[in-house]
């Protein structure tokens, strides 16, 4: 069974009141779930204490907090399992209606071809997709690949893990547009993953209406510190 834990990370646990209310509403729909927000310092402590040495080393090589958070999310779900959710995203429905007892992972496609959502993740611990994802990132860092391409380093390598595993296990698997993705389960070795349509059957929302409050900016705008505007090497 996938653990009933929801992980998020932000630089502080003191959030705007409206976002705190949104989280309470989210937990009202999911009363059996534990909600944990890791600060940057707690994320660092977790990686120092719980990550394998090679993963910990590449974590500390990252020059941007979002890249660190990406590696942390894969690591904590690999170690413990549960749900990961970006701090500016939202769970809008009941997870018990989405997640079955036999599920080991649930994946949902992005609108961009051959990509899968990783701002929200659902995994049982020790899942091969997460293992392959971390190994893909390790390989890139060791060969100095994607040093200036955050998306390829930590997002596309997640998709690559899914495709590599299905190919290795002779699954007839292809990316489908989220609106036309049927509910399908694929067996990979002694594990499996389930693919569902748009935003985890519309149980997740990419951006909640209070995301601008997190960064003290006017609604509908971005700040220059957004990860997509980072110009330096990722590591």
Write out key terms for the chains shown.
alpha/beta; 235 residues; seven-stranded mixed sheet; 9 helices; Spore Coat Polysaccharide Biosynthesis Protein SpsA, Chain A; single chain; two-stranded antiparallel sheet
- How widely separated are the two ends? 36 Å
What is the percent of helical residues? 40-55%
**Overall pLDDT confidence:** 94
Strand order of the largest sheet: 2-1-3-6-5-8-7
Q: What is the count of helical runs?
A: 9
Q: In the CATH hierarchy, what is the architecture at level 2? A: Alpha-Beta Complex
Reported for the largest beta sheet, the result is: 7 strands, mixed
Q: How many structural domains in the coordinates?
A: 1
As residue ranges, the low-confidence spans are none
User: What is the rounded Rg?
Assistant: 17 Å
Predict the CATH topology.
Spore Coat Polysaccharide Biosynthesis Protein SpsA, Chain A
What is the CATH first-level class name? Alpha Beta
DSSP strand tally: 9
Strand proportion: 15-25%
Which secondary-structure class do the elements indicate? alpha/beta
Q: So what's the overall shape?
A: globular
């Amino acid at each position: 069974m996938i653990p009933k834990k929801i992980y998020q990370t932000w630089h502080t646990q003191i959030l705007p009141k409206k976002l705190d209310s949104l989280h309470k509403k989210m937990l009202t729909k999911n009363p059996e779930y534990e909600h944990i927000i890791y600060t940057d310092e707690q994320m660092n402590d977790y990686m120092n204490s719980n990550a394998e040495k090679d993963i910990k080393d590449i974590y500390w090589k990252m020059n941007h907090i979002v890249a660190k958070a990406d590696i942390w999310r894969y690591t904590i779900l690999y170690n413990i399992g549960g749900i990961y959710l970006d701090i500016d995203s939202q769970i809008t429905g009941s997870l018990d209606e989405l997640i079955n007892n036999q599920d080991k992972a649930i994946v949902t496609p992005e609108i961009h071809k051959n990509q899968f959502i990783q701002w929200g993740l659902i995994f049982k611990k020790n899942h091969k997709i997460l293992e392959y994802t971390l190994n893909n990132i390790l390989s890139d860092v060791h060969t100095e690949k994607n040093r200036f391409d955050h998306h390829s380093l930590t997002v596309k390598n997640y998709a690559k893990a899914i495709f590599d595993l299905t190919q290795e296990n002779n699954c007839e698997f292809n990316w489908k547009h989220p609106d036309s993705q049927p509910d399908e389960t694929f067996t990979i070795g002694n594990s499996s993953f389930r693919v569902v349509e748009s935003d985890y059957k519309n149980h997740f929302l990419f951006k909640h209406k209070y995301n601008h409050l997190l960064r003290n900016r006017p609604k509908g705008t971005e700040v220059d510190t957004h990860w997509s505007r980072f110009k330096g090497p990722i590591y």
